[in-house]
Amino acid sequence: KVSVIVPVYNVQEYIRECILSLLNQTLNEIEIIIVNDGTPDHSIQVINDLIQSKENIILINKENGGLSSARNEGLKYA
Q1: Exposure pattern of 38-67 as b/e (b: 16+ CB <10 Å)?
Q2: Which of 65, 12, 16 lies closest to 40, judged by CA?
Q3: DSSP character at residue 4
Q4: pLDDT tens sequence for the chain (78 residues)
């Protein structure tokens, strides 16, 4: 199984393309871990629209702690 960790902070302009790219992979055993690092923009609304009923996607919400903190939080779930 492959786990992809996607830290999210102020990426509403790019996150749709990122998530769609991951969802279109041909690998069957893929897990997508999205870590909301307290983003103040509308990234999470965009993500929620895309991931409805997707069993291989985990959305984690946490307070802002920076990129490394978000990655480390995602590793806990991988």
Answers
A1: ebeeebbebbeebbeeeebbbbbeeeeeee
A2: 12
A3: E
A4: 899 999 999 999 999 999 999 999 999 899 999 999 999 999 999 999 988 888 899 999 999 999 999 999 999 999
pTM for this model (two decimals): 0.93
Stated as kind and residue range, the H or E segment containing 6 is: strand 2-8
Instruction: Measure the CA–CA gap between 50 and 55, rounded to whole angstroms.
Output: 12
Q: Which of 68, 74, 12 is nearest to 44 (CA)?
A: 12
Distance, CA of 62 to CA of 68 (rounded, Å): 13
The angle at the Cα of 18, spanning 13 to 20, to the nearest 5 degrees, equals: 110
Per-residue tokens: 13: 């302009």
- Judged by DSSP in three states, 26 sits in coil
3-state secondary structure at position 29: coil
